[in-house]
Design a protein that fits this description.
With about 80 residues, the chain is mainly alpha-helical. The protein has four helices and no strands. Helix 1 (about 10-30) packs parallel to helix 4 and helix 3 (about 40-60) crosses helix 4 (about 70-80). The mean pLDDT is about 85.
Length: about 80
């Protein structure tokens, strides 16, 4: 699972594989994971990521999904690991 391309995730199974790979990366080398290494910081960053993800789609000229997708959830998780 390539955790650097969360937007490619289409299914629940792929999302779970993404989460497993993401957790393994954090465990193996926390320095690679980003700024928000404790749960409180990570959850706050997830909130900020969920709020700002639509703007990112618009700035990249990508179509924002009308209904949430597994890929969108994975993008939010990925963004939260290093969100300032």
């Amino acid at each position: 699972m390539d955790i650097n391309k969360p937007y490619l995730i289409k299914t629940q199974r792929e999302f779970i594989e993404f989460l497993v790979a993401f957790a393994e990366e954090k465990h193996s080398d926390p320095k690679l994971w980003g700024r928000n290494v404790d749960l409180d910081d990570f959850l706050r960053a997830m909130i900020d990521s969920a709020v700002s993800v639509r703007n990112i789609y618009e700035n990249m000229d990508w179509k924002y999904p009308e209904q949430p997708t597994w890929g969108l959830f994975a993008q939010i998780v990925s963004m939260a690991s290093d969100y300032e």
